[in-house]
Every structure is written in structure tokens, then in C-alpha cells.
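Dear support,

Our group has been running a series of protein-ligand predictions, and this particular one with thymidine-5'-phosphate is the one our PI (initials K.S.) wants archived with full inputs and outputs. We had some confusion internally about which version of the output was final, so please treat the block below as the authoritative record. The input we submitted was:
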Amino acid sequence: MTQGSTGRFFVIEGIDGCGKSTQVERLVAQQGWLATREPGGTELGATIRGLILHGSEAPTPLAEALLMAADRAHQVATVIRPALESGTTVLCDRYAGSTVAYQGWGHQGDLDQISAINAIATGGLLPNRTILLDVPVDVALGRRGSDPDRLEALDTSFHERVRAGYLAQAAEDRDRWTVVDGTDSLAEVSAAVDRALGL
Ligand code: TMP
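Confirmed final output from the archive:
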């Protein structure tokens, strides 16, 4: 967290179909926090999101990482930092950990390069806590809609690597990450998320 910021910055991460959106909607309704997401939390980001997930041409993995980073850099500067500086708590659906998990582990990109890209995009802004909502890939697949986006449509082994990439990040940084078992009941998951966020 940058000195002078007063709001708290929370992030929720996980593979597609892990149940993040339900938790974000619940927390925002209960706490009145500012909710946003990546990619697509700004008008520019929504355009970038469309290019990445629904464009006619799939970006290369490096281009994909850079597009995610462009979305993040813009949103950090125009939404997240200003909100934190005004004392607002921000809850972001995905952040830099997604680029490590998807473009790094999923697409097997260069992790050092991705870390450097993330550092530029975030300007060093780290979440106070990241919740990893962990579910096995087969469970997540069963929860997804019938019209998958370009990344959701990738094969099971891609999503297994993404899940492993998330668990590795959480294991490496237990001070900032908390793993919540997303296969528990909604009430149990919600209680575990609340505990992790100090609610
Ligand atoms: P969402 O459906 O949870 O909003 O996520 C959008 C997709 O974008 C999801 O498949 C994960 C992917 N993604 C990345 O691959 N890298 C990133 O850095 C981010 C933020 C999302």
C-alpha cells in the first residue's frame, strides 16, 4: 500500500466458475465498498476486455499480458488509487495475480517478465488481502455458462495450470493471500471470506 492511502484494497481471485462474482456482489451490498473488476473496470478497460475475450483474433500470450496490464495501469490510476486515497475500501474482482496465473502458468509465459509487467502496471500497489476462492477445475466447469469466452473455452489442462498458479502464489505469500475452499456451502464460503477480510 502506498503511504498516504487510507482505504483498504481487497482482491478476490480464482479460476473461471469459482464463485467470485457471488462474493463480490454480497460484500458490496453488505459493506458499501467500491467494487470493480479486471479486465473491464473502466470504459477503456471494457474495450480491452472485449478485444481479449471476444475479439476475432486471439492475441499472443505476451500481447494478452500487455493488454491486461494496460487495463490495470489505467484502472489503478483512474479508479483504485483515487478511491483508496479518499478513504474508500476497494474490492477488485481479479488483479495482478490473474496475470501470473493465466498468462504465466496457464499460457506458460515467462514469469519474470510477467512480474515486471505487473510491477509497471500496478506501480507497486499491492492489495491488503487477496482471497483465492479455490475450486477443482471440474467443479468450476460445471458452474460455467453455456457461452464461454475465449479463455474459458481453453482445455482443462490450461485451467489446471491456472489453478496451480494461484495456489503457488498463495503458498508463497501467506501474509497477503488467504485460500478459501470454494466447494463449501455458500454460507461457509461467505463466513470464511468475511473472516479473512476481518469482518
Ligand atoms: P472474469 O470472467 O472473471 O471477469 O475474467 C475474465 C477473464 O480474463 C478470465 O478468463 C481470466 C482472464 N484474465 C487473465 O487471463 N489475465 C488477467 O490478468 C485478468 C485480470 C483476467
